[in-house]
Structure formats: structure tokens, C-alpha cells
Amino acid sequence: MGDIGLKIAVAHDGVSAFQGGERGVLEIARGGARDIVREFDGPEAPTGVLFKEQTVDSLKQVVTTFEARRGEITPEACAASAVRFLVDRFKRELRDAFEETCTLVRA
Fold first, then answer.
1. Is residue 33 part of a domain?
2. Extended beta strands in the chain, E state
3. Per-residue pLDDT tens digits for 92-107
4. Are residues 90 and 14 in contact, defined by beta-carbon separation less than 8 angstroms?
5. Is position 23 within any domain?
6. CA pair distance 46, 22, nearest whole angstrom
7. Distance between CA atoms of 82 and 36, rounded to whole angstroms?
8. Residue 86: inside a domain, yes or no?
9. What pLDDT is recorded for position 14?
10. Number of folded domains in the chain?
11. Does some domain include residue 4?
């Protein structure tokens, strides 16, 4: 099977883990992973696969799916998705939302 690029999909210091490897991730469908990982057949380019249960069978199924479709995950999609978690972007969007709210309150 070789190196499948298994990584945990976490945002740390504003950069998701899969940005460095750019191979995609396999992750349990809980918490932030549901926001971080973009799955196959979704509206955006895929960055990985989520699995519902922490069982051997569930992991086997997700690895099989990943192996069959891994060519659909591109380094560009992973990097573009990771940008969503950059600290500068968060600060900018928070500031913009605050300014917009202040403008609405003043009107």
C-alpha cells in the first residue's frame, strides 16, 4: 500500500496539518475535522476522507476509499484549504465583521 500520507487534520497556529504533506488526510468525523477536511464528491476540491467510527472495519473502509481516489487530492487543494486557517485571515475577517457590525449599529 505504501505511504498514504495519514495525518491528523488539526489546525495549529493557524495552519492545518495537511498543508505540509499536501497528500490529504484520513480523520475521524468529529470536532474540527468536519470543518477542516473536504471530502470527495463535495462542492470543493477534496483534501481527505472522514470516517465515522474508530473501529478496524471503519478504518479499513476509509483507507480503501482513500487509496482508490487519492489522485483526486492535489497539493494545490490542500494548500488552498489550509489558507482558511491562517491567523492573519482570522484577524482580518474578525476585524471586518466588527467594523460592519459597528456601522450597522450607528446607522
1. yes
2. 11-12, 15-16, 25-28, 48-51
3. 999 999 999 999 998 7
4. yes
5. yes
6. 11
7. 8
8. yes
9. 42
10. 1
11. no
